[in-house]
Write a structure and sequence with these properties.
The chain has 272 residues and is mainly α. It is built from eleven helices and no strands. Helix 1 runs antiparallel to helix 2 and helix 3 packs parallel to helix 7. The protein is elongated and about 70 Å long.
């Protein structure tokens, strides 16, 4: 089980990391990531149903630690998709909206405090009830999602464990968005949003910096200005630039497309 699981997880994480470089739109990247995660879970399910587990310890380990890591990714990307597609315009509305999302995480924490403490402290005295299939006990505060899942590939607590892991990721994402939002000029009413990929913007920023378009301005200062103005977080843009450099073909994909689009527009206007 460990070998197959580790191979599946590595393959999934590699594919998701590649999306950060190759996919053009944030929403499209999320949708593709969700598809990849669902496929990985399907592969794991087929493996479990066909092979089973050597013993209860292996089963507990899988449903307590391994499956939740992948399901957490699904919950995370699904949450980010909803956050991004429902996010309002304007600094104040965005901040209010994101704080409401943080409150939802807090409510989940408050409503599941006992399980949270049990899981986080790595207790194991009721693992045989929580992380072995077929152990149905209404007194253990079952989530309704349990009744909607395939019990051959689920326990009463593996989804809740995944939710805890996912909420950690979601909280970091939201707090990062809030931090970026608070760093903007409060008098800046810009509603501009970058809809191309982060890779494309990184490519543009490095091109402008290389040309000296902003004089002697530091690359970090240029990147931060673009982030604040265009409502985007570039993350580790230096790493993204290194990935661009490592491309074997079309290392300036966005700039090439930019030039083609401009020339096409010029030609079209000349023909008018």
């Amino acid at each position: 089980m460990d070998k197959f699981y580790n191979e599946t997880l590595h393959k999934l994480e590699t594919a998701i990391n590649e999306l950060e470089i190759e996919t053009d739109y944030c929403i499209q990247r999320i949708e593709t990531a969700v598809h990849l995660i669902i496929q990985s879970l399907s592969d794991l399910k087929q493996f479990v149903l066909k092979r089973g587990f050597k013993n209860t310890d292996e089963e507990i380990h899988f449903f307590k630690h391994q499956k939740p890591i992948i399901v957490a990714k699904l919950i995370y990307y699904n949450a980010i998709y909803k956050i991004e597609t429902k996010k309002p315009n304007g600094a104040k509305p965005v901040r209010k909206y994101l704080n409401e999302e943080l409150k939802k995480l807090k409510r989940f924490f408050d409503n599941n405090l006992e399980f949270y403490k049990y899981y986080r402290t790595n207790n194991s005295f009721i693992d045989d009830k929580l992380f072995i299939r077929g152990k149905y006990d209404i007194k253990l505060s079952l989530d309704t999602v349990y009744f909607e899942t395939d019990h051959r590939f689920s326990t009463i607590a593996d989804y809740k464990a995944a939710k805890i892991l996912a909420n950690d990721l979601i909280q970091v994402y939201i707090e990062d968005q809030l931090n970026n939002n608070s760093q903007k000029n409060p008098f800046d009413k810009s509603s501009l949003n970058w809809v191309e990929s982060k890779t494309a913007l990184t490519e543009l920023i490095y091109a402008l910096h290389s040309q000296g378009a902003f004089g002697t301005a530091d690359i970090i200062a240029i990147a931060k200005t673009f982030e604040n103005t265009l409502n985007i977080s570039l993350g580790d843009f230096y790493h993204t630039f290194m990935e661009l450099k490592s491309r074997k073909i079309n290392r300036t994909k966005f700039l090439d497309n930019l030039k083609e689009s401009l020339l096409k527009k010029m030609d079209e206007e000349d023909e008018m």
